[in-house]
Amino acid sequence: MPMPEWLRLRRAQPVPVEDAAQWTKCPKCGTMIYRPDLAANLWVCPTCAHHFRMHAFDRISMLVDADFNEIGGELLPGDPLGWTDKVPYPQKLARDREKSKLTEGVVCGFASIGGHPLALAVMDFNFRGGTMGTVVGERITQLFERARERGLPCVVFTASGGARMEEGMLALMQMAKTTMAVRRFHDDGGYYISVLTDPTTGGVSASFAFQADVVLAEARAAIGFAGRRVIEQTIRQKLPENFQTAEFLLEKGAIDMVLERNVLKDTLVRLLDYGVGGKRPANGRNGAAVPAVDAIPPAESRA
Amino acid sequence: MPMPEWLRLRRAQPVPVEDAAQWTKCPKCGTMIYRPDLAANLWVCPTCAHHFRMHAFDRISMLVDADFNEIGGELLPGDPLGWTDKVPYPQKLARDREKSKLTEGVVCGFASIGGHPLALAVMDFNFRGGTMGTVVGERITQLFERARERGLPCVVFTASGGARMEEGMLALMQMAKTTMAVRRFHDDGGYYISVLTDPTTGGVSASFAFQADVVLAEARAAIGFAGRRVIEQTIRQKLPENFQTAEFLLEKGAIDMVLERNVLKDTLVRLLDYGVGGKRPANGRNGAAVPAVDAIPPAESRA
Amino acid sequence: MNVIVEREKGLIQLEQRIDELKEQAAQQPVDMTAEIRALEAKYAEIQREIFGRMTPWQRVNMARHPKRPIGSDYIAALDQFDELHGDRHFRDDHAIVGGFAKLNGRRIIAIAQDKGRDTKEKVYRNFGMASPEGYRKVLRLVQLADHLGLPVVTFVDTSGADPGIGSEERAQSEAIAQSLYELADARVPLVASIVGEGGSGGALALALADHVLILQHSVYSVASPEGAAAILWGDAARAEEAATRLKLTSDDLLTFGIVDEVIPEPIGGAHRDAAGTIARVLDAVDRALDALIPIPSVELRDRRYAKFRRIGAASP
Amino acid sequence: MNVIVEREKGLIQLEQRIDELKEQAAQQPVDMTAEIRALEAKYAEIQREIFGRMTPWQRVNMARHPKRPIGSDYIAALDQFDELHGDRHFRDDHAIVGGFAKLNGRRIIAIAQDKGRDTKEKVYRNFGMASPEGYRKVLRLVQLADHLGLPVVTFVDTSGADPGIGSEERAQSEAIAQSLYELADARVPLVASIVGEGGSGGALALALADHVLILQHSVYSVASPEGAAAILWGDAARAEEAATRLKLTSDDLLTFGIVDEVIPEPIGGAHRDAAGTIARVLDAVDRALDALIPIPSVELRDRRYAKFRRIGAASP
Ligand SMILES: [Zn+2]
Ligand SMILES: [Zn+2]
């Protein structure tokens, strides 16, 4: 399959042409940074090391060896609740599509990283705050299902404000749906690494983000179940500075590693490598050695 | 098999004849109690409800429907380390045998309780403080192995000061040995209930006591890993009154239930009943539906 | 302020009037039949007006009605219950009550969220908002059920998971995620009943099930209306508006295929006939178990997979 | 006071003397060969005297020698190490260090107890005494190893599990019991090395393994000598006596079949050639893995069962 247009463009020109001449201000230290410089520095502030939220295309471009074989891109959100508040939901979607150049809050597909073929999902906060609606749930589910069929490891970058209100309970149920897919993937021997980026909260945090074999987080990312504001309103006191940061969670034992972005890819390659070629006995949960849905090749024979 | 002599005797005369005329003092409230009355009250102080530590024979007599088919009684401790301190280890053993009428710190066998056939182990603090040496480990292991073969549930009453110093590392390794047996029993669908009685600490607490499907404790029993004295010496401060009590552990989420002795048997019967006739799928951990060592009948066909 | 409680006040006064009149009629020779009839007709009319076509916000308030049967009422109505406590690691969370039980003689594991009735109990139960230890208790009980081959029956009633500092410190997200993960492939039948509020992930963590029942006036929502309003408009006071938009009523949920069965409530709500309502719920649970238990374990899980797989799928 | 450190003092002085003499000899025309030889002979004699036949108590002190290689030294000597943190529920316990690693190119999960070297590090590592979260981290890493089919390699060095209030509150017994339970049936090869002190259940929780190595002067004991003395005689000061009776040396353990292999140490103890000692341990681990990896999973676990089944069995 040919390399997607956006990947070719990002490779040629890390910052989209229409934004290239702009300067941007670091929200942490206030430094003005020339955007191509920022892109070249993996979207990390050269002054204070603040990690900017990354566009899914930039993230993928930074990670994959060559091509990226997108799946689920044809799945587009409907308006199941007929939602309107200030503007109708379809208008919000159209606006976000325009602004973000994304069709939904996650980009899924197959690629290789450091020579390791894998299934990769990257969420993007630019599209409806990375909230999980039916399309995000469906794309993630399809990715795990196909990774399971192909016997590939799965890496998911999360960035999400939680379940998408505008799709109501259909959004919440994506927590259940993705969980089912992750569980089957795992029970058939699948290896899953999640990378929690800023911010990862609510329904995404409380489902596939914390169901991985290895849970990583980007430095200083905000991670939690309840939003910071909700907690402050509930307990009526100020929260400590580092509350719900990746570093806080590491100390509290919730995550495996916190990584600065400049070592993320190399670390990921090493972690993927540990999962290769292990002598994995069949889990057997599904009875007489037959996986419940369809067969996958044993780990040893994987690419 | 004929009813063991001791069980026949306890049934006829709950307090052994040589002790019958004695009065005893409640260590909690100081009340003087006539021993036959105490026995009739399940060894619970009628004034303050203090639970006296029970002799294994009394415990078994209180619990089982009729007969008790002892196993492992022929296993007697050796002196693997050639241990001597004030007196040689074999002398200590002889003294405890004499005093307690027991051959070791646990009595194991098959019986039924409320109509439920089961494997039953009862530890006794009167023999070397209920410490686990090789014989305790071996008897417990054999009980789980035979319960597994017969497809019977297993109930273990613990009372132990931990591993037995006089048998050194051979004693410590009984934690590993019993764990292996409990795990195999469980993986083949076995149902295991432990009842933690006063005191349950150290190596017994840190092995089979806390590996049960359901963990019960007698009211006000002392339960913990480290001894109270060790902790006080380490932290150099007094511990709260209820520290390491059954009630403390319940609040801390470590155990399922705390039971007064007078409801213990009825509760146990109900708990055993819940484990009967469930539709248990094969665990399958050991591969193609064949248990690793030898076959047990499926749960449905059990007595 | 509960809008249902407010609207009920007139009805309760009317009820008292009718009772008084009936008593008078019994003691005096005067014929008051006509008056009583008139009042009863009025009563029925007001009842129809209040309860005949309830708005989503009224449903939310009904689901939160202080007299509505709570989790522990369902547990108490089982034949037998032996509570099992704790997560084995940190604490026994009183917001969730679970253990062995019998339902119509059938051995089950029953788990309920419990909001508590009076103030003291509400505090003890943390208003039904579970901490990570609560969800880890659920996980443990589901594992026990799986091991013994016992079906799991849950009763859901929570405004959401506890949003306190301690819960975040002890990884609330992980706890909910792992509860879902355990339910996802449990080898035993799972039946969930939404009996009050089904608030967000904190409710779903007990409601990933083979058969999901809901009481007619219960709600089940992606976020509490207050929470959704705060998220959407930064204004929790717009909860009524959010309730309307969120499609959280039993009818909506049945249409979307998110619940499998709606249990009718007596006119005026479940609390007007608590015992009857509870019996109807338990009866529906029992029927669901009758249907699920004969299904072989592998097929059961395949069906469960397919059931959730369909929700929000591209081509339904 | 460490008796080995005390006895080493004379040796260290002598070493310095010899070095000085050698330097002088190199700079001056005087022949000092005889003097140097004499001192070297004396040095060898004292060394033989101190280390030739060490008492159990001296072994205990050697195992606790402040310069003895500790857990993190073994981890550092692996080809590659990626630390994984936490129990996912409460805390990351720094007394236990674990993660993915490579040993001679082979992918493994490595787990070490680490006492820390200087005071600050000792406090950070809680002197190698793990809390429940440490054992729960072990459990989690063993599950990960089991899932990915990676062998588990542990390095044991602890005086025992942490005996603090918090550890009891968070169920230390349960944590150790469950770590053992997980190791008991893990479907991957397990190799444990007792590199320092193997203190009680807190050590065993990492040492239920298919192949157990021990360094020559390491000890592995049912309780620390101080603990045993306190339990037996209410007097921790009688630790030396307890050490003698407990049969905790590598020779005793090999005789009893509790360890499978003893790795010799250089004269004077492991710290006299830390790099060499570590390399020998890792080499022995590697050879053990070579032998274990080809064994099919079911047979591996049957052998593990039989290995521990034999210890203290009626008819060995
Ligand atoms: Zn900056
Ligand atoms: Zn008393």
Write the layout of secondary structure elements.
The complex is a heterotetramer, with two copies of chain A (303 residues) and two copies of chain C (316 residues).
Chain A: H1 5-12, E1 23-25, E2 32-34, H2 35-40, H3 56-63, E3 68-71, H4 89-100, E4 106-113, E5 116-123, H5 134-150, E6 154-160, H6 168-187, E7 192-200, H7 202-205, E8 214-218, H8 228-235, H9 246-251, E9 257-259, H10 261-274
Parallel strand pairs in A: 5-6, 6-7, 7-8, 8-9
Antiparallel strand pairs in A: 1-2, 3-4, 4-5
Helix pairs in contact in A: 1-3, 5-6
Chain C: H1 3-27, H2 33-51, H3 56-63, H4 71-76, E1 80-83, E2 96-103, E3 106-113, H5 119-124, H6 132-148, E4 152-158, H7 165-169, H8 172-184, E5 190-199, H9 200-204, E6 211-215, E7 219-221, H10 225-233, H11 239-246, H12 250-255, E8 261-263, H13 274-292, H14 297-310
Parallel strand pairs in C: 3-4, 4-5, 5-6, 5-7, 6-8
Antiparallel strand pairs in C: 1-2, 2-3
The complex binds zinc ion (2 copies).
In short:
The complex is a heterotetramer, with 2 copies of chain A (303 residues) and 2 copies of chain C (316 residues). By secondary structure, chain A is of the alpha/beta class.
Per the CATH scheme, the topology name of the largest domain in chain A is 2-enoyl-CoA Hydratase, Chain A, domain 1
Under CATH at level 1, the class of the largest domain in chain C stands as Alpha Beta
CATH fold assignment of the largest domain in chain C: 2-enoyl-CoA Hydratase, Chain A, domain 1
Shape of chain A: globular
Order of helices and strands of chain C: HHHHEEEHHEHHEHEEHHHEHH
Architecture of the largest domain in chain A in CATH? Alpha-Beta Complex
Assembly status: heterotetramer
Main interface pair?
Answer: B-D, 68 and 56 residues
What structural class results from the helix and strand content of chain A?
alpha/beta
- Mean pLDDT over all positions of chain A: 90
The hetero compounds bound to this protein are: zinc ion
Task: Count the domains of chain C.
Answer: 2
- How many helices of chain A in DSSP terms? 10
Number of strands of chain A: 9
CATH superfamily name of the largest domain in chain A?
A: 2-enoyl-CoA Hydratase, Chain A, domain 1
> How many distinct domains of chain A?
2
Query: Which stretches of chain C of 5+ consecutive residues score pLDDT under 50?
Result: none
Strand % of chain C is: 15-25%
| Low-confidence spans of chain A | 286-303
Structural class of chain C: alpha/beta
